[in-house]
From TrEMBL:
This is RsbT antagonist protein RsbS. CDD domains: STAS_RsbR_RsbS_like (cd07041). InterPro entries: Bact_StressResp_Reg, STAS_dom, STAS_dom_sf. Pfam families: STAS (PF01740). Residues 5-116 form the STAS domain. Gene3D superfamilies: STAS domain.
Length: 134
């Protein structure tokens, strides 16, 4: 018997929406990273929104993992936006000096998708040898 899903990854057009439903330990966070990166390639995604609104803590490992996901996604041709960081979480991250690097963020899912459309929407698909999408 399985429990409730900790994370869901849904496809919406050329984007993936990954929602983290509860706090993840380091092993679960690493598994999430691998699953999401795999889906980016399998679904040929151009953008990824990671919704962390359900989290009341983002520790240094989770923050570093989100940065890693964004960088790997970028190298695979997708833009990543993290949405839903709670105000107390943002204050704690700044107070602790956590570096989010060049991680794109937005207030909520709607704004995250709009940001992806602005950033990734103008990208053209790669062209294969016969002139069609690769």
């Amino acid at each position: 018997m399985t429990g409730p899903r900790l994370v869901s990854i849904l496809r919406q057009g050329s984007h993936l929406i990954a929602s983290v439903h509860t706090a993840l330990d380091d092993t679960q966070m690493t598994a999430f990273q691998h699953d999401l990166v795999d889906r980016i390639g399998r679904d040929r995604s151009r953008g990824v929104v990671i919704d962390v609104a359900a989290l009341d803590v983002l520790d240094s490992f989770a923050t570093r993992t989100l940065r890693t996901i964004a960088e790997v996604a970028r190298l695979r041709g997708a833009v990543t936006v993290v949405v839903g960081i709670q105000p107390d979480v943002a204050f704690a991250m700044v107070s602790l000096g956590m570096d989010t690097g060049a991680l794109h963020t937005a207030l909520d899912l709607e704004e995250g998708l709009a940001l992806l459309d602005r950033i990734a929407g103008g990208r053209r698909p790669a062209v294969g040898a016969r002139g069609g999408p690769a």
